[in-house]
Amino acid sequence: MKMPDPMGNEAQLTVYVDADHARDQVTRRSVTGIILLVNNTPLIWISKRQKTVESSTYGSELVAARIAIDLIIEMHYKFRMLGIHLEKQTVMVGDNMSVVLNTTIPSSSLKKKHLACSYHRVREAIAGKFVVFGHIDSVMNLADIGTKPLSTLIFHKLIGPYLFR
Question: Is 145 left (phi over 0), alpha (psi -120 to 50) or beta?
Answer without folding.
Answer: alpha
